[in-house]
């Protein structure tokens, strides 16, 4: 049986009287691409925020690598090997692409304000060079060498999405959380992003938890899929099994069983 890198146990979250998540539990196998789908307002981003530490659940636990991280801050979870991208881009628009990616290495720096003034005589210089080399590897991997010195705020939306993915990869995470990585992209950009996600999963060995509305992408690259509806887990399983389930069709696609039979007969 595949080991789980992430376990979510009976997580509930409410904002005042509004329940965003209700008693949600699931496990993510190490080395997998795990997609979370559901209608708008189903609680998908709220779940990612509970996993990453932006939100504190009212009850339940988040367990990462067999360690309960429910009370840890986002930066502490990053130290443990958890990376994150956002639905709304969170880049530093005035900084270069390379500098944005280097920010992702900040928590790995061992030198501090005491050794900084001795930059040339301390290990700080070698450390910075090593971090830059790793960032350059990511830049080559994501095919953004031509914009490495460009100001992030001047780039197209699709390229900025790729830069944000690069910064999350710079954390050298074991688990990466992607919130709608293909939202707002054209077909070609989506195909490129899907390929990068598969490659970072297979070549870098990074486990992926992804929220995505494009069902074609979800079906093509996911190992497992979980469906949320009104903050509750409908089901979890293989992509084909999930998409064939009548409850999922009704909640997510708006298709009733009799409608599906009518469509089949008409075709």
UniProtKB/TrEMBL annotation:
One Pfam family of this chain: BCA_ABC_TP_C
GO CC terms of this entry: plasma membrane
Coiled-coil ranges per UniProt: none
Recorded superkingdom: Bacteria
Signal peptide region: none
E.C. designation(s): 3.6.3.25
GO MF annotation terms: ATP binding; ATP hydrolysis activity
Keyword Signal applies: no
Entry keyword set: ATP-binding, Hydrolase, Nucleotide-binding, Transport
Species in which this protein is naturally found: Colwellia psychrerythraea
Protein name from the UniProt record: Sulfate-transporting ATPase
Residue intervals of the ABC transporter domain: 6-255
């Amino acid at each position: 049986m595949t080991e789980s890198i992430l376990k979510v146990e009976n997580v509930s979250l409410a904002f005042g009287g509004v329940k965003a998540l209700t008693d949600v539990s699931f496990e993510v196998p190490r080395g997998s691409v795990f997609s979370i789908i559901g209608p708008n307002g189903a609680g998908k981003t709220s779940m990612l925020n509970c996993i990453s530490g932006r939100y504190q659940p009212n009850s339940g636990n988040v367990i990462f690598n067999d360690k309960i991280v429910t009370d840890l801050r986002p930066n502490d979870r990053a130290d443990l090997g958890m990376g994150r991208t956002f639905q709304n881009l969170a880049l530093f628009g005035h900084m270069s692409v390379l500098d944005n990616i280097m920010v992702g290495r900040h928590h790995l720096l061992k030198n501090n304000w005491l050794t900084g003034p001795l930059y040339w005589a301390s290990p700080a210089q070698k450390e910075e060079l090593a971090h830059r080399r790793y960032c350059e590897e990511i830049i080559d991997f994501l095919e953004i060498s031509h914009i490495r010195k460009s100001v992030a705020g001047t780039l197209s939306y699709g390229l900025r999405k790729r830069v944000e993915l690069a910064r999350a990869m710079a954390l050298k995470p074991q688990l990466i959380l992607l919130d709608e990585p293909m939202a707002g992209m054209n077909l070609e950009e989506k195909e490129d992003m899907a390929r990068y996600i598969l490659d970072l999963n297979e070549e870098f060995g990074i486990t992926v938890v992804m929220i995505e509305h494009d069902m074609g992408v979800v079906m093509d690259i996911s190992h497992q899929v979980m469906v949320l509806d009104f903050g509750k887990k409908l089901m979890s399983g293989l992509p084909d099994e999930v998409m064939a389930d009548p409850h999922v069709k009704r909640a997510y696609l708006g298709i009733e069983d009799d409608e599906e039979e009518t469509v089949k007969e008409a075709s």
